[in-house]
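User: Can you recover a sequence for this backbone? Please restate the input before giving your answer.

Assistant: Of course. Working from this structure:
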């Protein structure tokens, strides 16, 4: 199966989709320490699953053994495939050295990943005084190109926000145009599509640019990615989870209720009925926030309308900004087929992600957010210290690529690799 390198890996949503499709990861490069531990724990999970022995993983999630003791049970090369580096000109030599050691004599077939999106996002530019012009994150694609030049994979997959299409450099040129020109000089033909995760089995409206590069000259290399439309409602994501209120719940595994639906199985979020989940813990809220939440959910339930911040009773309005971000309080409507885009801001507060059940009256737990992102229930989100962090889990989940979207891309692209193998076989028999 194709071997791939994951750059700017985050918590591994993109990588998980490629692993599910059958690709073999060589290395994950990520600067965030907590996300690196998440990647290591996931790599350990996959290795233990191949050994048909998930007992150590279960014991770890239950808190029966420490992270150190858990990692001691895993081969060093498995954990060593996660490389904790900020990708920069200074770190490139050591990153290349580590990747070369992991590759050995093997060839890299694919590079996946996209740089942090903040500098390209329309929201990020709106909050910045200089519109993110000159931000160093705008130029991380140049370092991405260094990996292409060194390893010459057959394909690469570059993911980012739609704002990439309009983000401009200091000279007024488009970063996206400059990026594609650079990749061309590296020997790659590129093509792109704006994809919405909701078209690929994800119950979330999440639009992203998926740029794919092919080494050589070709016009029809972009794979046909079959649409996976779902008629399931968002509420199905939460229906088997224990009912909790603000400030309640636990990080450690809790059993889910009997599930009679189909979506959680078809999306591979659940492996089996009553499968335990971690991180089903709600953040505490002030009485004022909870009153606002009740109004927001009640208005949606009765009128199917969103409430603007300025529509709230004056006594509940404490923000000075009453002209923008008026939808800062928003219910994740259980009766719709798509939730709003999960973003990293959920780590700061849950106002934009209010649970649809007014009786629970709270924002989403990390597990619920992870389900919207189609992470499997057995996916565990780490912290730096080993002590579970709800905040860091939210951040990693919000920054991730939905697993089902990643799988759809990976599975469609796999056909291209297979076609290449067939062409080689045919030429050898002539």
């Amino acid at each position: 199966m194709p071997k791939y390198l994951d750059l700017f890996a985050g918590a591994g949503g993109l990588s998980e989709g490629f692993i599910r499709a059958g690709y073999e990861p060589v290395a994950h490069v990520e600067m965030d320490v907590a996300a690196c531990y998440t990647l290591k724990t996931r790599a350990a999970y996959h290795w233990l699953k191949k050994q048909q022995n998930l007992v150590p993983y279960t014991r770890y999630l239950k808190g029966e053994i420490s992270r150190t003791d858990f990692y001691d049970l895993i081969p060093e090369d498995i954990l060593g495939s996660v490389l904790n580096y900020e990708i920069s000109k200074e770190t490139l030599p050591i990153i290349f050295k580590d990747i070369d050691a992991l590759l050995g004599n093997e060839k890299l077939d694919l590079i996946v990943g996209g740089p942090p999106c903040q500098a390209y996002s329309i929201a990020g530019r709106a909050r910045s005084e200089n519109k993110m012009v000159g931000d160093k994150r705008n130029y991380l694609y140049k370092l991405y190109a260094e990996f292409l030049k060194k390893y010459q994979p057959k394909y690469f997959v570059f993911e980012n926000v739609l704002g990439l299409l309009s983000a401009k450099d200091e000279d007024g040129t488009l970063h996206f145009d400059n990026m594609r020109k650079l990749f061309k000089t590296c020997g790659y033909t590129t093509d792109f599509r704006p994809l919405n995760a909701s078209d690929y089995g994800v119950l979330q409206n999440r639009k992203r640019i998926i740029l794919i590069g092919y080494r050589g000259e070709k016009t029809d290399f972009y794979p046909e990615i079959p649409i996976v439309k779902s008629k399931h409602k968002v509420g199905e994501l939460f229906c088997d989870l224990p009912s909790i209120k603000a400030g309640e719940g636990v990080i450690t595994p809790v059993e889910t209720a009997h599930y009679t639906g189909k979506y959680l199985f078809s999306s591979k979020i659940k492996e089996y009925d009553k499968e335990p989940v971690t991180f089903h813990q709600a953040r505490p809220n002030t009485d004022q926030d909870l009153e606002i939440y009740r109004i927001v959910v009640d208005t949606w339930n009765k009128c199917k309308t969103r409430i603007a911040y300025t529509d709230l009773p004056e006594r509940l309005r404490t923000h000075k900004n009453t002209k923008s971000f008026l939808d800062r309080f928003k219910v994740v409507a259980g009766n719709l087929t798509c939730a709003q885009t999960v973003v990293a801001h959920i780590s700061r507060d849950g106002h934009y992600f209010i649970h649809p059940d007014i009786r629970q009256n709270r924002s989403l737990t990390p597990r619920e957010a992870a389900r919207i992102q189609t992470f499997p229930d057995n996916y565990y989100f780490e912290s730096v210290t080993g002590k579970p962090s709800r905040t860091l889990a939210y951040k990693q989940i919000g920054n991730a690529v939905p697993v089902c979207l990643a799988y759809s891309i990976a599975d469609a692209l796999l056909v291209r690799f297979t076609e290449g193998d067939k062409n080689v076989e045919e030429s050898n028999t002539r």
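That completes the design. The chain is about 35% helix and 10% strand.
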